[in-house]
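INFO batch 0412 | record 1 of 1 | parsing
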Amino acid sequence: MRKTLLSSLLLLGSLGSASAQDWTIDVYGGLGADNSLLWDGDAFDTGNATAFGLGVYKTALLDGFAIGVDVMASDADYIGDTDSISATSVMLASRYALPISDSLSATFGAGLGAMAVSYNVGQESNGYTDVSKTVAGGQAEIGLSYQVANGPAVFGAVKYQAPFGDVEFDDGLVIEYNSTSLLFGLSFRM
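INFO prediction complete | emitting tokens
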């Protein structure tokens, strides 16, 4: 995962030298929706998840368009169990801001990259152990951004993430993973 993150940051750095106001750094957090995920062929419910992340975007490519690297971590507990599932993603992401007014914009985004999906055994392991697998995945996002005068932009977004297919761990366990998160954050212009 570290190699993927480093490669993504080097790719982003090669897009051009930074000048004033050409970069944004997004910091965000939020909650994921309840879900139902397949675990070894059967569906199990997960409760509310938590999510947090960081994005670095080059903004001066085309008017309203930005490209960058987005790193997000999320986790959810299985309802009625002590087990949990989590994912850390590194995505090469693009975003488009459609102006609604001078300060308000609708944002649309997508990304492709890698997801490290982990199944975390709780107190009752029933013979299972913690497992993790890095797989290819993607994300889609829609939101609103409000530019505060002489300050950062405040934004809210709904982000969906999923690997391309089910995750098969080395021990043969096959699980489904996806998340839909409601996120709030700040975007700082650099």
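INFO post-check: Residues 2-13 form the longest helix (12 residues).
INFO record closed
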